[in-house]
Amino acid sequence: MNANVHRAVKDFVRLFQAKLLPNAVLGGLAARALGVPRPTWDVDFTVAVDREDLGSLFEQAEELGYTVPSAYQAVWVNTVSGMPFVKLGISIGDRSIDVDVFLAETDCLAEVIRRASTELLDDDFRIQVVSPEDLIVLKCVSFRPRDVIDIQDVLFMQGELDRDYMRHWADQLGVRRNLEESLRKYDASPEERG
User: Fold this and answer.
1) CB–CB of 25/43 below 8 Å?
2) Cystine design at 170: which of 61, 79, 176, 186 (Cβ 3.0–4.6 Å)?
């Protein structure tokens, strides 16, 4: 993993832990942990934080060198499939690392945190990582070519998963079609799985 991404993960996990905020790693880092390792240049979390506490969270992140776009400093949040999130970032050398923080205000994201498991980031640092089922459903939201590959990698590496659970949340997020397409693709290629 890139040292700058590694730093960002540790910075935010420590920040969340200091504030006693339940959280889980999503996105490319979770795909690395649950599927096939690949490079990633951003960090995605979901965290159980009240909107009125975002200002304090932003201040602490800024003390660590992160930037918060002015729209988010006014406690504005963006949404994707009804899931609210804020963006932060840091420039280190010639690289920029984006940090997307999804607010666990929805039943789906609260469940993501509840089902997350503890994984080692390195020898002495533990993080909470989204479950394989939840990662697949969340990847179905953006469903970019890289997400489609991540979904297939996670299905391949993790084996049989709880499809009823995934279908439930895919329905809630309006991405059932993407999930079914991914499952059909996986089911159609058993020879590739040995």
Assistant:
1) yes
2) 176
